[in-house]
């Protein structure tokens, strides 16, 4: 980069120098040409005065090596010329400078001389006897001037090239010095400093990228840690029912179970097998959501109908737990996957039944608003992904259950996290339901947050219970 800057500065400096030199030469040529004509006019006036006073004798001892002098009669006949035989010269009556002098007393022209075969500058003056004195000199050409000054010009050019080379080298070093001293690991240190004002937008962009890279690195590390914990937890969760099944099966195999308890042991084996099957299914679904394998189909889904289907599916479970299940609202439509939307509603309702009291209830409320805005929630609410303002479909699942302690609110969407571990296992939970809900909501560009009151957190007459609020962009 330093070489590129050096070459650019040097070429610019050299171009400016050569352009300046050409400009000076042009101005000098114009000035010298003007001075030549001025000197011709002076010489012509002196010659006119001499001829007026001395007549033809003026030309006897005349020395005009730098100029040519011609005396022309009123009718154009050449009376005298110091560079040619006057008697053999053509009549000069039609010469432009002669015609001007005869008319106005003074004439001036620049043209090719047929006598000398050269480009000449002419000045003519009319005398009192109406004869004409004409002075001429070879016109100064740009090439002549250049050849005359070629040696000093070459010296100046060489000096200019050398000086511009040195200046370009020093200037490029000075420009690059602040850049070479930059600590790119901490670009924000240079914000506002005079030496870095021009590249401050670049430094700000670098700082932003570094923050983004740091955030990405932290997210990668967090994801790796979550996967490690997930693997460990999954292994533990799978080993538990396997140990139970293995233990009961071994007892049955060794005929160590009374006949009246065989059915009970078989039921326990079936329960653990069902739990293990559900756990494996949840792990597969969650892995698909994590890896992006669960592609979101774009269908117009009636969330009200999905809620009714979930209610019908969970009715036996709710009846067994002595919990009433209700759906409120009207048809509300969402663009998304029917299977994932069913999974969201099912998991929320299933948890609401499992962690409820006998005689309790679960209510599903559906609303479709024209405008809404869901922002960051308070500390007692867990939030996942914000939606844009606009038409929203809102699903609220409210239960009258045991509630969630405030310190656990922020962790309920973690995998295998259970607020009440003993109750969760008794109810057959896998600890993955809310993680699946969170990922499915994110795939639909939705938002989920929770508000809960338990025996500890409920106050001021507030009843126990939990409300999950899910919002989707409306169809």
UniProtKB/TrEMBL annotation:
<dbReference type="GO" id="GO:0005509">
    <property type="term" value="F:calcium ion binding"/>
</dbReference>
<feature type="transmembrane region" description="Helical">
    <location>
        <begin position="9"/>
        <end position="32"/>
    </location>
</feature>
<dbReference type="InterPro" id="IPR003661">
    <property type="entry name" value="HisK_dim/P_dom"/>
</dbReference>
<feature type="transmembrane region" description="Helical">
    <location>
        <begin position="149"/>
        <end position="168"/>
    </location>
</feature>
<dbReference type="InterPro" id="IPR005467">
    <property type="entry name" value="His_kinase_dom"/>
</dbReference>
<feature type="domain" description="Histidine kinase">
    <location>
        <begin position="233"/>
        <end position="475"/>
    </location>
</feature>
<protein>
    <recommendedName>
        <fullName>histidine kinase</fullName>
        <ecNumber>2.7.13.3</ecNumber>
    </recommendedName>
</protein>
<dbReference type="InterPro" id="IPR050736">
    <property type="entry name" value="Sensor_HK_Regulatory"/>
</dbReference>
<keyword id="KW-0812">Transmembrane</keyword>
<dbReference type="InterPro" id="IPR004358">
    <property type="entry name" value="Sig_transdc_His_kin-like_C"/>
</dbReference>
<keyword id="KW-0808">Transferase</keyword>
<dbReference type="InterPro" id="IPR003594">
    <property type="entry name" value="HATPase_dom"/>
</dbReference>
<dbReference type="InterPro" id="IPR036097">
    <property type="entry name" value="HisK_dim/P_sf"/>
</dbReference>
<keyword id="KW-0418">Kinase</keyword>
<dbReference type="GO" id="GO:0005886">
    <property type="term" value="C:plasma membrane"/>
</dbReference>
<keyword id="KW-0902">Two-component regulatory system</keyword>
<dbReference type="InterPro" id="IPR036890">
    <property type="entry name" value="HATPase_C_sf"/>
</dbReference>
<dbReference type="GO" id="GO:0000155">
    <property type="term" value="F:phosphorelay sensor kinase activity"/>
</dbReference>
<keyword id="KW-0597">Phosphoprotein</keyword>
<dbReference type="Pfam" id="PF00512">
    <property type="entry name" value="HisKA"/>
</dbReference>
<keyword id="KW-1133">Transmembrane helix</keyword>
<dbReference type="Pfam" id="PF02518">
    <property type="entry name" value="HATPase_c"/>
</dbReference>
<keyword id="KW-0472">Membrane</keyword>
């Amino acid at each position: 980069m330093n070489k590129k800057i050096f070459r650019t500065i040097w070429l610019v400096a050299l171009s400016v120098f050569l352009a300046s030199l050409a400009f000076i030469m042009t101005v000098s040529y114009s000035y010298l040409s003007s001075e030549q004509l001025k000197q011709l006019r002076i010489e012509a006036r002196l010659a006119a005065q001499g001829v007026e006073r001395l007549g033809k004798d003026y030309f006897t001892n005349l020395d005009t090596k730098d100029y040519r002098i011609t005396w022309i009669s009123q009718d154009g006949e050449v009376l005298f010329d110091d560079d040619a035989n006057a008697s053999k010269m053509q009549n000069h009556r039609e010469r432009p400078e002669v015609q001007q002098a005869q008319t106005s007393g003074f004439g001036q022209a620049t043209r090719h001389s047929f006598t000398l075969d050269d480009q000449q500058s002419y000045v003519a003056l009319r005398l009192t006897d109406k004869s004409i004195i004409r002075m001429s000199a070879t016109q100064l050409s740009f090439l002549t001037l250049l050849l005359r000054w070629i040696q000093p010009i070459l010296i100046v050019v060489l000096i200019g090239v050398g000086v511009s080379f040195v200046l370009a080298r020093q200037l490029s070093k000075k420009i690059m010095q602040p850049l070479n001293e930059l600590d790119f690991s901490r670009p924000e240190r240079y914000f506002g400093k005079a030496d870095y004002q021009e590249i401050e937008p670049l430094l700000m962009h670098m700082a932003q990228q570094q923050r983004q890279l740091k955030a990405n690195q932290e997210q990668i590390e967090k994801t790796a840690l979550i996967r490690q914990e997930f693997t460990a937890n999954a292994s533990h969760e799978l080993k538990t029912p396997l140990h139970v099944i293995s233990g009961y099966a071994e007892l049955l195999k060794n005929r160590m179970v009374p006949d009246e308890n065989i059915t009970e042991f078989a039921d326990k084996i079936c329960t653990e097998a069902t739990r293990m099957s559900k756990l494996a299914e949840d792990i597969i679904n969650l892995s698909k959501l994590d890896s992006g394998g669960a592609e979101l189909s774009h269908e117009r889904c009636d969330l009200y109908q999905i809620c009714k289907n979930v209610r019908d599916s969970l009715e036996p479970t709710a009846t067994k737990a002595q919990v009433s299940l209700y759906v409120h609202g009207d048809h509300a439509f969402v663009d998304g996957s029917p299977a994932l939307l069913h999974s969201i509603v099912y998991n929320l309702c299933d948890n609401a039944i499992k962690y409820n009291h006998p005689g309790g209830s679960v209510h599903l409320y559906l609303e479709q608003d024209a405008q809404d805005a869901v922002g960051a929630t308070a500390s007692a609410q867990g939030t996942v992904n914000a939606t844009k303002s606009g038409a929203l479909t809102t699903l609220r699942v409210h239960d009258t259950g045991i509630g969630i302690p405030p310190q656990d609110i922020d962790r309920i969407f973690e995998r295998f996290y259970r607020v009440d571990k003993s109750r969760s296992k008794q109810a057959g939970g896998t600890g993955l339901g809310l993680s699946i809900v969170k990922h499915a909501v994110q795939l639909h560009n939705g938002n989920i947050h929770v508000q809960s009151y338990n025996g500890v957190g409920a106050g001021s007459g507030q009843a126990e219970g939990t409300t999950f609020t899910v919002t989707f962009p409306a169809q």
